[in-house]
Design goal:
Elements: H1 3-7, E1 9-12, H2 26-38, H3 58-72, E2 81-82, H4 87-99, E3 105-107, H5 117-128, E4 135-139, H6 141-144, H7 150-159, E5 163-168, H8 174-183, E6 188-191, H9 197-202, E7 207-210, H10 217-246, H11 254-264, H12 281-296
Parallel strand pairs: 1-7, 2-3, 3-4, 4-5, 5-6, 6-7
Helix pairs in contact: 2-3, 4-5, 7-8, 11-12
């Protein structure tokens, strides 16, 4: 499978559904994954920030990957996020999800500890080298306080053939050009912030690790395809409709807001795992006004 075909398209950062007792709802997780693939998604990315990976136990993570692999079969790859407090845990997790059937890895810098390049490089090298699986580097300095610069990304790509792609969530679309300047087409570029998808595609991105796709799967896939085929002009109407929703992917309570969208669309529950709590009061009213307006104007 070529790099481009593995990573191209809309790959949902799938949310983790919880039952009323707080456990992972595996039955719904499987159903939801199939629903996203039926809508045209080209991969499933669990255990990320939107998947509340930081509040999941190790065994819960492995069980989630097993459920998703069984649910989607060979239709699309399951590409779990690999993030941990320690390098040992990250390496162990990478090997465990490989054994559970994952076909790729999304590799993050260490949680909590904001390391310098010397330490972060050693951590990431250990995780990349732990398996033969294709790797997507995830750069999100806003959330993780660690920045993969274009030069550093190029170093990983040069050293490791299995580094195939980079998910850019720095918020600076100029990074795409800077990465290409360093290594040409060596890596597939993916957008990691929902409200930058059209701009990212214009700069050469071929994939989208999407959040709001969990609630609006058909619209997200159609937006990606319109932007890919005809740029901003082709995607403008749908992009303008989508933007108030897409912007909810880039705020601190994005997990709660996207799950609220899912519940409103009958595609999930808004239950989250503490310390997150569902949004309430004026914050909830403002979010529902945006969501309900989008629902009322779908397809217009």
């Amino acid at each position: 499978m070529s790099n481009a075909s593995f990573w191209r398209g809309v790959l949902p950062a799938i949310t983790t559904p919880f039952a009323a007792d707080g456990d992972v709802d595996h039955a719904f997780l499987a159903e939801h994954a199939r629903r996203l693939v039926d809508a045209g998604s080209t991969g499933i990315v669990p255990l990320g920030s939107l998947g509340e990976g930081a509040t999941l136990g190790f065994e819960e993570k492995i069980a989630i990957v097993r459920t998703l692999v069984a649910a989607v079969g060979d239709r699309v790859p399951v590409v779990p996020g690999i993030a941990a407090l320690s390098t040992h845990e990250a390496v162990t997790l990478a090997r465990a999800v490989r054994d559970a059937g994952a076909r790729g890895l999304m590799v993050l810098p260490p949680y909590v500890y904001s390391s310098d390049w010397h330490e972060m490089r050693a951590h990431v090298r250990a995780v990349i080298g732990a398996t033969e699986l294709p790797v997507l580097l995830y750069n999100n300095p806003i959330a993780y306080k660690t920045d993969f610069t274009p030069a550093q990304i190029a170093e990983f790509a040069t050293e490791f053939p299995n580094v195939q792609a980079v998910k850019e969530s720095s918020g600076d679309v100029r990074r795409f050009a800077a990465i290409r300047e360093r290594i040409g087409d060596r890596l597939v570029l993916l957008v990691g912030m929902d409200d930058a998808i059209v701009e990212g595609i214009a700069m050469g991105a071929e994939g989208w690790i999407a959040g709001t796709v969990n609630a609006f799967p058909e619209e997200a896939v159609r937006l990606f395809e319109q932007a890919r085929s005809g740029g901003y002009a082709a995607a403008r109407a749908l992009y303008e409709w989508s933007l108030p929703l897409l912007r909810m992917d880039t705020v601190p309570k994005f997990v709660q807001l996207i799950k609220l969208m899912q519940e409103r669309m009958d595609l999930g529950s808004e239950r989250v795992r503490a310390p997150r709590l569902v949004v309430e009061g004026a914050e909830r009213e403002q979010a529902l006004a945006i969501i309900d307006r989008a629902i009322a104007t779908r397809g217009r």
